[in-house]
Every structure is written in structure tokens, then in C-alpha cells.
Recover the amino acids of this structure.
């Protein structure tokens, strides 16, 4: 009730939600309360109100991907993460706004509405999981899940001053996550602090036979990493992330101040070079758009999703449905991806991008032979003004410089707040770990709490 009252009072200004499931949430909360009253055991997350990005399937509840294409799509099944959170006795409060099909970095590409940054309503919350970050920052849910293909959990966490974790590729099931770029997509938590992050990770990670890329490993109890000790830990800071062009000076200072704190606590911090960084954005936009063009071919107006009212024949049905159902950014990616995959261009673009992918992976492997973790900024700036970058997609893409490599290499990345700029806007510190070593990230993140 307290979270619903908070939604009642601030949602009109913030706009985190596409769907609020008030009645279902109250009913579910009552069921859990009854369980407790009867003396039955509930999980540590029992009764906690949470919300999901609107690209995760929820049985019987609309899952729109913030697209006209899926405006009326009601999934007949739950995503694995939805089921796992239900099994953990949480209460689903609603579905969150995002960039259409998770393509974007400001949540301005939603078909439905804009979401505002709770710290300053004239600013974007980041994206594509902007609703997921804003709702936690505004107290409209205790935690949320977002998805991260090239930074979409971490950058909004940074812009909204919350904790966001992009887990190792394959550690959280993608079954029931509407696909954007399948080799990069990963679901993760957005929380108020690192302790909550560990608790939610415990609930959502694990092997899932329904996801062919799921890693079949035993996963640790992440709360075991909530210890205040970084002594002797080796931390590498890529020079390109600090001295490269375009990093805002206040963000730089906040990140370097965090390094000083870690040094005082006994960590060994040193700079190193990740020279391939300048090719990460082009490689990411080729690979993600190529995969998107293939994944989004399923929206043809026939099986499910939007169907145009007027068409002459089958081909025209496809054309009209896709022209009317998709927004501008989604169309841009489909065209870019189709072009990059077409014969004659495949070797020059897609194959080249995959070669860069290997080099990026090798760069991190080498770094992790020396360091326990890699540290840097999350985004070049703090939250910018709504509308400021909407007409300049390339400028928007450049904002992903510090986040995309983590997806390209399949690594875990944790963002924690590390200060504010002169406009009182939050700054996020990014910690990047070895595959399946979320525990180290949680441990270092926790020392800042
Ligand atoms: N901003 C990036 C993009 O537009 C990342 C999106 C994401 O992680 N879903 O592709």
C-alpha cells in the first residue's frame, strides 16, 4: 500500500510505468501476508514490491516493449525471471517504461510516454531501462529488473543514482525476455543499494534449460560477498576510459576520487591500456543491429502483434504492419543491420565487427590476468536534458562508449553511485569483473555503502 500510495503521488511527474497492476498487487500481498500469518516460511524477498521492464513476459499482463507493435500483446507465459521472483514471494507492482525494444539511451524512444529523471524532471532518466531506474530512485518500487544489451541497466542506474548490475552473459535466463540482440542481452537488478542487489541476484540467477545460452554452473550466495574488505585487491583502470575524449570533468573527478578511497582502504590501483576501446561502438552497433534485424523479422502482422488495417496482399500486409508498428529508431536499426548482413557487405561489416569482438575479449582477458577487477566511469556525462539529443542518433550512440565492451565480452558490470555533479545530478562508478565473478564486484561496491 505504501508503494502504491507513492505511485499515486509521484507517477504523474516521473512516468516510470506503462502498466500498474494495483489490484493484482494487493491480492498477491494479501496472499503472502496470509502465508506469514499461518506460520509458513517466505523468502527473504517475501512481500517486497518490485517492477519489471516491459520487455519481460508476464502471464496475463501486457508486455509491450514500449512499442505500438506489441501494444496489445498479453503473453501466455512468464519469463523465467518473472517466475523466479514469484517463487521468491515478491509482489509485482507493474511494468516499466523503456526505449522501444530496448533501443536507445534515454527512454525517449518509447511509443507511450517520456520518463523523467526523479532528481530533475527536465532531465532524462537514461535508458533503455529508464523506467526501471526512475521507479527505484523515486520510491515507486523497492527494486526492479532491467535488461542490458550495451549499457541499458548501468547507464540509467548512473543517471538516477541507484545500483545496477549487468550480470555475466548466461547467468540470468533470457527465456521470456523479448529479444533485441541475443548474444548481448542480459537481465539484471536495479536496487537502492548493493545489499539488495545481492539478494535479488540470488533470486534470479541460475541455470535454465529453456535458455540455450544459460551457463550450467552452481552459483554462489552473493550475500557472502557483503564484507567490508578490499585490502590487497588489484584494480585496473583503463587509460582510455579516463583520458579519452569526451569525458565530463566532474564525472572524471568523481571516479578518480573513488579510486583514492579504494587506495586508502588498501586496494592496489593502477592504470593500464585497452587500446581497442575506440572500435567498441562501431562493433557494437553493427553486431546489435544485425541481430536485431533478424530477431525483429518475426513481427510481420500475421502471428501476433500489430496488424495494419489496410493492405492489398500478403507482402503489403508485412510492409504496412511494420511501417506503422515500429518507431524511427527501431527502423533505423533494422535497416542498418540488414545492410551489414547483406551479401557483398557481410565481410566488410559484420565479419569485421566479430573480429573486433574477439580483440575486445582478448583485451579484457589480458587485463584480468593482472587485475581482480576493472574500474571506470559508466557514461561520459550525467543525465542530459530531455530532447537535447533526440535529433542526433550518432551523438546518442557515442554515450555508450564505456558500457558496450562489457556486453561484447560477456562480462559482469556493477554500477554504484559515487557522487554528484554541480547540478546535483548523480554520477555512477562502473566496476567490471571476470566472468561469473559478480561476488568481487559486490564486495567492492559494498565498501562504499
Ligand atoms: N544505448 C544502447 C543502444 O541503444 C544500449 C541499449 C541496451 O543496452 N538495451 O543500443
Amino acid at each position: 500500500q505504501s508503494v502504491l500510495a507513492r505511485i499515486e503521488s509521484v507517477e504523474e511527474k516521473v512516468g516510470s510505468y506503462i502498466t500498474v497492476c494495483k489490484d493484482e498487487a494487493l491480492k498477491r500481498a494479501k496472499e503472502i501476508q496470509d502465508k506469514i500469518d499461518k506460520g509458513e516460511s517466505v523468502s527473504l524477498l517475501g512481500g517486497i514490491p518490485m517492477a519489471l521492464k516491459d520487455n519481460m513476459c508476464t502471464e496475463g499482463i501486457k508486455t509491450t516493449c514500449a512499442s505500438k507493435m506489441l501494444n496489445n500483446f498479453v503473453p501466455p507465459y512468464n519469463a523465467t525471471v518473472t517466475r523466479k521472483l514469484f517463487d521468491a514471494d515478491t509482489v509485482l507492482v507493474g511494468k516499466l517504461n523503456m526505449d522501444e525494444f530496448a533501443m536507445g539511451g534515454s527512454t525517449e524512444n518509447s511509443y507511450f510516454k517520456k520518463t523523467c529523471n526523479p532528481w530533475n524532471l527536465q532531465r532524462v532518466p537514461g535508458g533503455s531501462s529508464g523506467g526501471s531506474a526512475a521507479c527505484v530512485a523515486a520510491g515507486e518500487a523497492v527494486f526492479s529488473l532491467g535488461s542490458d544489451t550495451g549499457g541499458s541497466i548501468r547507464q540509467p542506474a548512473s543517471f538516477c543514482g541507484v545500483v545496477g548490475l549487468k550480470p555475466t552473459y548466461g547467468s540470468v535466463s533470457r527465456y521470456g525476455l523479448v529479444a533485441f540482440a541475443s548474444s548481448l542481452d542480459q537481465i539484471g537488478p536495479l536496487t537502492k543499494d548493493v545489499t539488495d542487489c545481492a539478494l535479488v541476484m540470488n533470486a534470479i540467477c541460475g541455470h535454465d534449460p529453456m535458455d540455450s545460452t544459460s551457463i550450467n554452473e552452481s552459483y554462489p550466495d552473493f550475500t557472502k560477498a557483503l564484507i567490508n574488505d578490499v585490502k590487497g585487491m588489484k584494480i585496473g583502470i583503463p587509460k582510455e576510459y579516463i583520458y579519452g575524449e569526451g569525458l565530463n570533468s566532474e564525472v572524471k573527478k568523481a571516479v578518480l576520487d573513488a579510486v583514492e578511497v579504494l587506495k586508502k582502504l588498501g586496494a592496489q590501483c593502477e592504470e593500464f591500456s585497452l587500446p581497442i576501446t575506440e572500435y567498441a561502438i562501431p562493433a557494437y552497433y553493427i553486431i546489435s543491429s544485425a541481430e536485431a534485424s533478424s530477431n525483429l523479422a518475426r513481427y510481420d502482422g500475421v502471428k501476433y502483434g500489430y496488424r495494419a488495417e489496410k493492405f492489398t496482399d500478403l507482402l503489403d500486409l508485412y510492409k504496412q504492419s511494420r511501417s506503422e508498428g515500429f518507431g524511427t529508431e527501431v527502423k533505423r536499426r533494422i535497416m542498418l543491420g540488414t545492410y551489414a548482413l547483406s551479401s557483398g557487405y557481410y565481410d566488410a561489416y559484420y565479419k569485421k565487427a566479430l573480429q573486433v569482438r574477439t580483440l575486445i575479449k582478448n583485451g579484457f582477458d589480458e587485463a584480468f590476468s593482472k587485475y581482480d577487477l576493472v574500474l571506470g566511469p559508466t557514461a561520459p556525462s550525467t543525465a542530459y536534458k530531455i530532447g537535447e539529443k533526440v535529433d542526433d542518433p550518432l551523438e546518442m550512440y557515442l554515450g555508450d562508449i564505456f558500457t558496450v565492451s562489457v556486453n561484447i565480452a560477456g562480462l559482469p558490470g556493477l554500477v554504484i553511485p559515487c557522487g554528484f555533479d554541480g547540478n546535483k545530478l548523480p554520477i555512477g562508478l562502473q566496476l567490471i569483473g571476470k566472468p561469473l565473478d559478480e561476488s568481487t564486484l559486490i564486495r567492492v561496491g559494498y565498501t562504499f555503502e
The chain has a mean pLDDT of 97. The first helix runs from residue 2 to 14. The CA atoms of residues 137 and 390 lie 24 Å apart.
